[in-house]
Design a protein that fits this description.
The protein has about 325 residues and is mainly alpha-helical. Among the domains are: about 50 residues; about 170 residues, Serine Threonine Protein Phosphatase 5, Tetratricopeptide repeat (Alpha Horseshoe), CATH 1.25.40. The longest helix has about 70 residues.
């Protein structure tokens, strides 16, 4: 009887061993699948976190841009009021009732133009005021025949914006951006160098919108700082990198006009020529390059070589 019992137990153990091994193999397979799923879920979670950070950065930039535009409009005095509709009746102004004069209303020391019509400041009849001298005549002979005055380059381009530019190339309407207003929220940290470095860091990272705001804030908060010419130059570069040639030309022209002895003045005049060429004013760009060679003979070799390349590329005579 015992022998039969032992034989039965041995057979049971022999049958149970493969089943246990199969269960163990199934458990290992399930664990591997769970680990793979966990890794996939972790990767998806990291991807979602990365996209969330990108969305936050985009939202922050959008908010800063909206704030900047509102402040820009505020600096210009707000938007113009809409013209009254043709269907909306224009209210008539209420005429004040005439009050009986009980005595003289004019002070004896107030200037009366009717008593002395030729006095300075007195109103003149329309068309009798002599016209001002043209800007080109006032500056004739100061810059040579090839360069009639750097101060009027941008103004000439503005007048020629709907039509032909200096070299005969048409500039389409809407291609020239409007001048930005000077109003920017001054969020200086009280350290001009730190403000400048922060804006320059954004420029090196090709975040030109943030760099533009940073340099404009610096210029508004530190108008007398020694870094103003350099900040103005890099502000112009932010515009030039985004093909906003008019704003770039204005900033480079400010350096040539207000800081002609600054270290960045030759570079600014070079970039002014590049910006004018981008506007289609090739002849004026050539005049700027020629003026650069004449005015800054001590400019660095890189600036002189770049000026020569631009003159050859534009076929300047």
């Amino acid at each position: 009887m015992l022998r039969r019992l032992f034989v039965f137990l041995a057979l049971a153990l022999a049958l149970a061993a493969p089943a246990a091994a199969q269960d163990a193999a199934d458990a290992i397979v399930r664990l591997n699948r769970l680990e793979n799923q966990m890794r996939q879920m972790s990767g998806q979670l990291e991807q979602l976190q990365f996209e969330n950070r990108q969305l936050k950065d985009q939202l922050r930039k959008f908010q800063e841009d909206v704030e900047f535009r509102f402040q820009d409009l505020g600096g210009r005095g707000g938007s113009r009021p809409a013209a009254p509709s043709a269907t909306t009746p224009t209210p008539r102004p209420v005429q004040p009732q005439a009050q009986p004069q009980t005595g003289p209303q004019r002070r004896s020391d107030v200037f009366d133009p009717s008593q002395d019509p030729n006095a300075p400041g007195a109103p003149r009849p329309l068309g009798t005021t002599p016209p001002s001298a043209p800007l080109a005549d006032a500056e004739e002979g100061q810059g040579g025949e090839q360069f009639a005055g750097i101060g009027d380059l941008i103004e000439d381009d503005e007048q020629a914006a709907p039509g032909a530019a200096g070299n005969g190339m048409a500039i389409p309407q809407g291609a020239l951006p409007a001048r930005p207003g000077p109003s920017v929220a001054a969020t200086s940290v009280g350290n001009p160098r730190a403000d400048f470095d922060a804006a320059y860091t954004s420029f090196t990272q090709k975040d030109y919108d943030r760099a533009e705001m940073g340099f404009r804030r610096f210029l508004q908060s530190n108008p007398r700082d020694k870094l103003v010419p350099e900040a103005t130059f890099w502000l112009g570069e932010t515009y030039l990198q985004r093909n906003r040639y008019r704003e770039a030309a204005e900033q480079f022209l400010n350096i040539s006009a207000d800081h002609p002895d600054a270290a960045k003045a030759p570079d600014a005049m070079l970039r002014l020529g590049v910006a004018l060429n981008g506007l289609g004013a090739r002849d004026r760009a050539c005049a700027v390059f020629a003026e650069l060679d004449r005015k800054y003979p001590q400019a660095s070799a890189n600036v002189r070589q770049a000026s020569e390349r631009e003159q050859k590329r534009n076929k300047c005579t």
